[in-house]
Each structure stands twice: as C-alpha cells, then as structure tokens.
Amino acid sequence: MGPCQPDGEVLRAEDLRRTFPGPAPVEALRGVGFTVRAGEIVGLLGDNGAGKTTLLKILSTLLLPSSGRAGVCGIDLARDGRRARRHLSVVFGGDRGLYPRLSALDNIMFFGGLSGPHRHLRTRALAALEEVGLAERAKSRVETFSKGMRQRLHLAVGLLNQPCLLMLDEPTIGLDLMEAERVRGTVARLARAGTAVVLTSHYPTDIDRLAGRVVLLDAGTVSHDLPIAEFRRQAGFTAEVRLSGPGIAPHDVAVLLTDASVQIQQDDESWRITFQVGAWDAAVLGRLTEVVRRHPVADIDVASPGVEAVMRRLALNHG
Amino acid sequence: MGEALRVAKAEVWAVWRAAVLQMRETTRVMTATVVSVIQPVVLLAVVSRGGADLGPERTTEIVCGVVMIALWSSTLWGAGTLLRREAAQGTLAALLVRPVSLLSVLLGKTLGVAAVGLVRTLAAAAVAVPVLGLHPQLPGPSAAALVMVAAVVSAAAMGLVLSCVVFLSRAGLRIIEALGYPVFVLGGIVIPPDMLAPALRWPAQAVSLHHVAGLVHDAAQGRAPASVHLTGVLLLTVLYLAGGVWAFNAVLRRGRARGTLELA
Ligand SMILES: Nc1ncnc2c1ncn2[C@@H]1O[C@H](COP(=O)(O)OP(=O)(O)O)[C@@H](O)[C@H]1O
Ligand SMILES: [Mg+2]
C-alpha cells in the first residue's frame, strides 16, 4: 500500500536534536539517527528521561526537531508533514486521548475518517475492534471502559488506516497479562504483514517478545543499535542456570562452579542456586554434572539472557 | 491537480465527520443545555411575569433577542472552549497526527456545537413562548433564517479567536466569562444601542453581535434588513475568521516549535 515498498526503508532519522528552551534548557535529544525497514519491529529502550517520547513526538510531527531530519517513506516530516502523516500512526500509552462520552465505534470511526473518506470505514472499524477484542463493547461509551480497554482502543485506532509505520509509546503500560499478550499478538501480526513498528516500553518482556532490533537511548543519544540477538549478547553471558532442590543448600557448589556470579537462596524447606555461564564448554558441563551427581537437585532451568539482563548490566557499568 | 483535489476532499470530509461527532457529544454535555435551553426559558419567563402587556412589537423584539442571546452564547461558549477541551482530554495530539488540518476539524466541531444549540434553542422557544402566553409576531422565514445564520456564523468565528486565546492562557476561560457581559452590552442586547454612552458606540460597531441585534430589530419590526448591519456582520465575521485562522496557525507553530502544546 502507498509508497512503502516491502522490505524497503520506511523510517529514516538523521542527527535529530531537540532542546527545550527555558531558564534551564533541556537537551532531550543530542543527535539521534536510525532507520527502520518494512516489517521490522524496533524496540526503543532507555531510562526515564532518555528521550523516547520526545523522539516519537518528532517522528509523528507533533514536535519539530531543533535540527536534523526525519522522513517516512521518503517524505520529509518537517517539509511535508501532511503527506507523511498519511503513512504513519502513533499510539501514545495511557487512557487519555479519546472522547469519553462517545462509544468506541464513534471514536474509531471519527479518527479513522480523518485519514480520508473511505467506503468501507465501518467494516474496517469493526474489524479493528475485533482485532483488539472490543467487538462486543463497540457501542458502549468509552467512559465505561477500563484503562486496559482504552489502551486497546487506541491500538485499534492506530491500525485502522493501515499505516506503513506504526509507533507505540508504552503500549502495554497498565494492562493485565492477557491484555498485554493480546496487544503483543496484534503488533506481531501487523509486522508480519509488512508494517514497520517502533515500540518503546519499560517492560523488557515486550521488547524480548517482539523486537527484531533494539535502539537504546542514553541521555538523548543512541548508545546501541543492534539486532536483538546481538543485543542480548551484551549481557556478557550465554545462559543463566537455576538449580533447585530440597533441604539445605549445598555449600560447596560455589567452589565447584568457580563462578563469581553464583547466588544461593535458602528458603524454609528448599534452596535455589543461580549462576551465569559465559560460554558452554566441556568444563562447565562437567562441573554441572558433578553438582547434580553429588546433590539432590530437583530441577534445572536454563534461560538465555533477556533484554532485562542486558539493561541490568549496562546500568551497573554506568555507575 | 489530483493531489490538490484529494486534499480538498479529505478536508471537507473531515469538517463533516467532526460536525457529526461534535453534535453527538454536545447533546451529552450538561452546561450546553443550560446555555441553550434553560437560560432562554428563564429569561422568557421573567419577561412574561412582568404582567404588563408589552404589545406585540415589544414582545416580538424580546423573544427574538432572547433567542439570539442563547444562540450567540451557546455557540461562542462551545466553540471558544473546544481547543482547551481537546487538550484536556488528550485528543489534541490524536487530531494533530492525522493527515488533515486541525482547523478543518475545529471548524466542523464549531458547526456541530452551533447546530445543536440552534435546534435546542428553537425547540425550547417553540414550547416556552405559547406556554408563557407570549404572542410575538413571527418574522418571515427568510428574515429569521438570515438573522440566525448571521448570529451563529459570526459567533462561531469569534469563538475560533477565543478558542486560541483560551488555549494560550490558563486564565482563558475566565477571559471568556468576563468578556461575555461587555459584549452583550456593546451588542445592544442588554441596553438599547441608542442608550449607550457616545464613547461606547464606536467599539460597539466592532462587535458583530451589535449588528446581529440590529438585524433582529429590523426583522421584529417587519422591516427589510439595514445594509449597514448586513455589511457589518459580514465584514466583522470575515475579520474574526481571518484573525482566528492567523491566531490558530500561530498557536500551532509555536506549539510544534517550543513543545508547549499540551500534547499526548
Ligand atoms: N515539553 C517539554 N519541555 C521541557 N522539557 C521536556 C519537555 N518534554 C520532555 N522534556 C524533557 O526531555 C527529557 C526527555 O523526556 P522524554 O522524551 O519524555 O523521555 P522518556 O520518554 O524517555 O522518558 C526529559 O528530561 C524531560 O524532562
Ligand atoms: Mg516516555
């Protein structure tokens, strides 16, 4: 659809800078550049205040950059905002941004209709509501909706005009587990159909489950821009192993494993030992076998490092 | 060419969708009912309780004046607070990321507010006037339509200017409230225009309500509308509109550049 080629570049940001003036000016962005291709999901990570929301506001034309350029489907955002807006959608987290006295269907039809006259608007609006699980509540007023339902309605509005680029700011904030899972499912489906997605989230789970690439913002600059697998490798280990068993924790384990990262946790009637493996080799496997042979190990859990582990490590390195 | 047509079509469509949405919303807002229904009915009741027979001419003028105040103030109030309400609800950002101009949406919404006010006020008057035993001479349909369109359109244009003022300043709502009374005075609705102090007659010429009141006066007397008032309304409405569009664009430019719009 539109000028967006499958596998083509959908978003390009170059050296974006943004300073908020005032008695103490804030440099929210200090030269941010990255690109997103069709069908790609990019996770935008960073601490509070790193500049994620500011970046999304610039990319959705709500805010002008102090300098630098950005374009969607080759259309410059600052010069031709209206045309660019035809190809992008942005979903800001939270439960505001809807008309509370009107029904879900009224809301979605209105916002959808602002993308131009469309013959099948109503059918598409109902399909979008179905997609986010709100079909039965289409005629209910939004003021009767829970926070999670409002957030899902935002997503439905965002995907209605079939944008080339979908930007989501904290889309799962405040959702319960099932709701969050549903939102993730929808985002993944859209990306498979070719939509380029930029996603910010506080929850590493969202990034872990969805992102193909991670762009990490640190105080307004891009500190990492890596494919997800490579980003996970920044954690500095390949696996986290958790052993557990009954009774008192065996204290020679730390010695056996000769690893500084061993953590022992003793509960009333059981224990848990966690350690990180830098790389799987014969020595590590041998030592692990030795532990299992000598002690009553009831369960072994092996997990690859997630985004959270990387973030933890980077935070430690920071100070 | 194709692009220009597409843009124009999208804008017109946006005006229409916004008007429909706003009509639906306004019918569910309590304050709107107060201004467009309760206020005119109360005013009419007060007048009819005066007891003294006012005569058909005076009655006609009062009824028309009351209807006009209601139309004017419900449109002005509704339109003047639109932008602020969108910002407070967080819908402003959602509107600004659409491929149509916010101005079209605002225009549509203003028309929606005005339409609901018009229907409600006319319905309220149609019920209240006979019940209260008032016997106005109804002006001809074309004269009535002219006056009402003049009132609503010029109030909507002024509402657009105020919308930007209200949006720019936290005290904006109070500015509207404070402006309401002087505007009514200058507009000749509260005091007959010829009783205004001479120094105030000039500023009165710059308030379109003054000319609307003139048109009401003519219609009530069964006279043809004075061209002074017709041109006055037209000119002032265009002026307000131009000022409104300018103020609106200034607000947007400033917001996008400084990050001061209460977005998202
Ligand atoms: N409108 C604004 N005026 C002044 N400072 C702002 C404004 N918006 C954001 N900031 C500042 O810019 C920095 C980045 O904010 P933000 O983009 O919201 O970060 P994030 O979304 O990553 O938490 C913060 O220091 C924030 O205080
Ligand atoms: Mg944020």
Describe the structure.
The complex is a heterodimer of chains A (319) and B (264). Chain A is α/β, with parallel strands linked by helices and 319 residues long. Chain A folds into two domains: 9-230, P-loop containing nucleotide triphosphate hydrolases (Rossmann fold, 3-Layer(aba) Sandwich); 239-303, 2-Layer Sandwich (Alpha-Beta Plaits). Chain A contains eleven helices and 14 strands. In chain A, the strands form three sheets. Chain A has a six-stranded mixed sheet with strand order 6-7-8-3-9-10, sandwiched between helices. A four-stranded antiparallel sheet of chain A has the order 2-1-4-5. Chain A is globular, with a radius of gyration of 23 Å. The N and C termini of chain A lie far apart (47 Å). Chain B has one domain (2-258). Chain A binds chain B through residues 18, 20-21, 53, 57, 60-64, 82-83, 85-86, 88-90, 92, 94, 96-102, 106, 109-111, 113-117, 157, 169, and chain B through 6-7, 9-10, 13-14, 17-18, 21, 24-25, 28-29, 89-91, 93-101, 105, 256-259, 261, 263-264. The site of magnesium ion has 2 residues of chain A, from α1.
Q: Gist?
A:
Chain A has 319 residues and is of the alpha/beta class. Chain A has helices spanning 52-59, 81-85, 104-113, 121-131, 147-160, 177-192, 204-210, 228-233, 253-257, 282-294, 307-318; strands at residues 9-20, 26-37, 41-45, 67-72, 75-76, 88-92, 165-169, 196-200, 213-218, 221-227, 239-246, 263-266, 270-277, 299-303.
Strand content of chain B: under 5%
Rg of chain A (CA only): 23 Å
Number of domains of chain A: 2
SS elements, strand count of chain B: 0
Terminus-to-terminus distance of chain A: 47 Å
Q: How much helical structure, as a percent, in the residues of chain A?
A: 25-40%
Total of helices of chain A: 11
> Terminal Cα separation of chain B, in Å?
35 Å
> Could you say how many structural domains of chain B there are in total?
1
For the largest beta-sheet of chain B, the strand count, sense and barrel status come to: none
Present as ligands are: adenosine-5'-diphosphate, magnesium ion
Sheet with most strands of chain A: 6 strands, mixed
Number of strands of chain A: 14
CATH-level-4 superfamily name of the largest domain in chain A: P-loop containing nucleotide triphosphate hydrolases
| CATH hierarchy: architecture of the largest domain in chain A | 3-Layer(aba) Sandwich
